[in-house]
Design a protein that fits this description.
about 210 residues; alpha/beta; Rossmann fold; 6 helices; NAD(P)-bd_dom; NAD(P)-bd_dom_sf
Length: about 210
């Protein structure tokens, strides 16, 4: 059983993730910004820690085995907030992980983030921030996995996905939708099965069982 800090736990994917980690016998810690967000986790017996990515949040990493960064500034914020949360917040999370001697890190990223060129102007800050955070993680000695899902939907969980490594990715693998619950299950299985081998995966909906896709 691992103690898993989920950064950005009040996000839609992260809520599913904390529940799934609990179901798999792990000890998730939901990092939240507001006290009123705690009840939904405590009802499930999930520990919470109050911390803010825009302030000192190093206390959240106490006795943690694995860190999952699932935070995001959201679609209704400006470019400044995107850089603060999606880039600098992620980088500081990585630094705190290293400072605490924690070895395992999972990054929930996005598609496409190999640079902002050719993307919609409105989305460029988001892709830029995610790209910088991913690159920063790749240059550490952490045991990591970066997951880059396609367009997130609220469709029912299917348990089936198309998942390919960055080095094998085609345009088809980087253009598609995937239910949030399936993304959460992939993240949970990455943690549960210790699939932390310094790899980047693209994820969209597909026909392969998640347990076989990993």
């Amino acid at each position: 059983m691992a103690k898993v800090l989920v950064v950005g736990a009040n996000g839609q994917v992260a809520k599913f993730l904390t529940s799934k980690l609990k179901e798999k016998g792990h000890d998730p810690v939901a990092m939240i910004r507001k006290e009123e967000q705690a009840a939904q986790f405590k009802e499930q017996g999930i520990e919470t820690v109050l911390a803010d990515l825009e302030k000192d949040f190093s206390h959240a990493f106490e006795n943690v085995d694995t860190v999952v960064f699932a935070a995001g500034s959201g679609p209704h914020t400006g470019p400044d907030k995107t850089i603060i949360i999606d880039q600098e917040g992620a980088i500081e999370t990585i630094d705190n992980t290293l400072d605490r001697g924690i070895k395992n890190f999972v990054m929930l990223s996005g598609l496409p983030v190999d640079g902002p060129k050719g993307t919609d102007d409105k989305m460029k800050p988001y892709f830029y921030a995610k790209h910088r955070a991913d690159q920063y993680l790749k240059n550490t000695d952490l045991n990591y996995t970066i997951l880059r899902p396609g367009l997130l939907t609220d469709d029912e969980e299917t348990g089936k996905v198309q998942m390919v490594e960055h080095s094998d990715a085609s345009s088809d693998a980087t253009n598609g939708e995937v239910p949030r619950q399936d993304v959460a299950e992939v993240l949970a299985q990455i943690v549960d099965r210790n699939k932390l081998e310094g790899r980047i995966y693209y994820l969209i909906g597909g026909d392969t069982d998640i347990k076989d896709a990993l």
